[in-house]
Amino acid sequence: MGERTVITGLGILSPNGVGKAEFREAIRAGRSGVRRIGHLDASTFETKIAGFIDDDKIDALWQDKKAKSRLDRITLFSLIAADMAWTDSRLDEVADEPYRKGIVVGTGCGTTQTAEYSYERFFLLKIPHVKPSTVPRGMYNAAAGEIGIKYGLRKISNTVTTACSSALVALALADQYIRAGLADIMLVGGVDCPLLQVYYRIWDSLRVMTRDFNDQPERASRPFTVNRSGMVLSEGCAFVALERESVAAKRNAPIYAEVLGIGQTNDAFHIVAPRMESQAECMEEAMANAGVAKADLNHIQAHGTSTELNDVAETKGIKEVFGPKAYEIPVSSIKSMIGHTLGASGLISLIGVLLGMQDGFVAPTINYDAPDPDCDLDYVPNQAREQAVRTAMVNAFGFGGTNVSVVVRKP
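User: That's the sequence. What structure does it adopt?
Assistant: Structure tokens below.
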């Protein structure tokens, strides 16, 4: 398999925290980032809440207004989060070193902002002229391209889209590139910005979002509870710096975790409904590739979407893999605090785990006030748990049946 990879830098834009310090504080405190929608006309929506990031926070981090006007929102988010990870990893110190550097970005809905804007101008406003800049602005690989140009990432550039597992599929690809000897350092990102007028309305009509907590948005996302009624749609972005272990050691880089093993499976079952057996196989494969005993796993950061089908299937899958040990493993869902960031969610969850490893805590599953008999594991209810975590698993399961599980260990 080649040399092991390590994570050396983090960048995060989350509805409840921008930057790793603010995000760490929020998830440790169990603070929700879900609010009433203010920037869209939600008058005809059944669901009127979401997890979003205020523009003033983005503007404070990106002040080049001319550049901003030519970037889709996912590209803007990606540039900001990638810079956080690059700086955190101290990669600015190795710009002239002959390391082979690349990038992989995962996104579920891609440059939807550009598409909506263009269609509105052309079909609704009847403006026949279409800006030629729409092509580079609306390409799915625009974020990877812009970041590659900024940092001179001349080895590999890839963009993947596998719905809600996109970010962890990106990580899996980057890990394979490094282990195969094709790259030394990879920036890995996950991003989605689905809170747009038409796109949100499509999700609203899909009837997978909760409609019961419009007046109490912070209580809306409630994975593994008997009274959960659907997910909360959110935007977000996360980036990590991934590199060959020997390269990180040579440059004395900060190491958050080793990537021990990754599992991937495909349900080949239903376009939106999960298949428990495939999720279990995915977790089993990740543990086998990691080469650690199941008894040594300290934490599982669940996909935990707050939907009836997902929460039960994932719970059954965990019990299938770990047997009686499953009841001893803290299983939590950061989505209870931020909603579902789609293609970004896997890396946001991973960063939450890494920050918990660093500081000795497990983030809680908030809004856990009515246990579901079919979901009977230890979900770290409502308050963070002070606990040393050495080895953890992160799950991401996407529409279309794409499953990814990642096992990481504190160095």
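The first strand starts at residue 5 and ends at 14.
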